[in-house]
């Protein structure tokens, strides 16, 4: 701690209207007797407030605090709040850094997954399977002369052909839960389950699907048109399938998630009773995007 030293104030000059103190005239007269008279100019004293600081009132103390302690040591009653406020920027920096690291890790995982999927596609070249309907056995669609209020209960057995010949290194696993539906002019006639089996690469598998329908009601227009097409030997039917599948790559354990494959085949049959010959007029297959995993 340092003490401040104040300079002593200069004695005040006498005012013009104030007589000089006693003894001052005699001393001045004695000095002037031995020296010639000279002209003197009174020295203009500046205002005392410009050359010296104001003296503190009596009974006060001036304490100086070192500069390295100014605004750095909080009072005891504010120490806890000061510590809490001082720790906020550090927590915010840590939180911001953690968020940036998490975003960078997420982007890195996306890039790695995309690179892996692209490499797997270029190596194995997966292709969607092809489907066709070889034949149809139809029962319960002969009674077309009755009124439209009569319901039909058709039964159909379809011979379906699944072709995986375009995939040389990719096998297909048809899982349970799939269905096959036959409809005419937008009206569903019968539906049945798709069997679950595994198909290796470069393989063609034929299987039968049994479908049944109950409470099928056709309008008068649909009945007349169906009867005319049966007489002409060209009845158009739509065979739709929805099958959950997995793709297995070669002999490894790498395969895809279970995805839905939707297929629609437009066929024409020559009769509505017994074993009918099915003429395929085209099949369309739709597969959802695949997500790869080990």
TrEMBL record:
Biased composition (Polar residues): 38-48
UniProt feature, compositional bias: Pro residues: 8-22
Keywords: Membrane, Transmembrane, Transmembrane helix
UniProt-annotated location(s): Membrane
Topological relation to the membrane, as annotated: Single-pass membrane protein
Primary residence: membrane
Domain Late embryogenesis abundant protein LEA-2 subgroup, chain residue ranges per copy: 160-265
GO cellular component, one term: membrane
Superkingdom, taxonomy of origin: Eukaryota
Any Pfam family the entry gives: LEA_2
Region (Disordered): 1-61
Residues annotated as transmembrane: 98-124
Protein name as catalogued: Late embryogenesis abundant protein LEA-2 subgroup domain-containing protein
Upper lineage: Eukaryota, Viridiplantae, Streptophyta, Embryophyta, Tracheophyta
């Amino acid at each position: 701690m340092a003490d401040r030293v104040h300079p002593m104030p200069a004695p005040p000059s006498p005012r013009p209207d104030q007589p000089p103190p006693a003894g001052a005239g005699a001393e001045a007269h004695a000095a002037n007797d031995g020296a010639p008279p000279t002209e003197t100019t009174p020295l203009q004293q500046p205002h005392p407030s410009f050359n010296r600081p104001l003296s503190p009132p009596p009974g006060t103390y001036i304490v100086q605090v070192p500069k390295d302690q100014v605004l750095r040591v909080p009072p005891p009653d504010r120490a806890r709040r000061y510590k809490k406020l001082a720790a906020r920027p550090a927590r915010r920096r840590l939180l911001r850094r953690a968020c940036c690291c998490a975003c960078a890790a997420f982007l890195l995982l996306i890039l790695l997954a995309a690179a892996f999927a692209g490499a797997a596609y270029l190596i194995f070249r997966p292709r969607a399977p092809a489907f066709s309907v070889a034949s149809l056995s139809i029962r319960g669609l002969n009674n077309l002369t009755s009124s439209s209020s009569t319901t039909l209960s058709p039964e159909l057995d379809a011979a379906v052909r699944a072709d995986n010949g375009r995939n040389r290194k990719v096998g297909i696993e048809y899982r349970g839960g799939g269905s096959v539906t036959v409809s005419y002019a937008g009206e569903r006639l019968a539906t049945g389950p798709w069997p679950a089996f595994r198909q290796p690469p470069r393989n063609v598998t034929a299987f039968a699907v049994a479908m049944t329908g109950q409470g099928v009601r056709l309008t008068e227009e649909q009945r007349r048109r169906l009867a005319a097409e049966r007489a002409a030997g060209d009845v158009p039917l739509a065979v739709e399938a929805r099958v959950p599948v997995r793709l297995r790559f070669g002999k490894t354990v790498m395969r895809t998630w279970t995805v839905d494959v939707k297929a629609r085949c437009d066929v024409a049959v020559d009769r509505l009773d017994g074993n009918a010959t099915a003429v395929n007029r085209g099949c369309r297959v739709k597969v959802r995007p695949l997500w790869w995993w080990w």
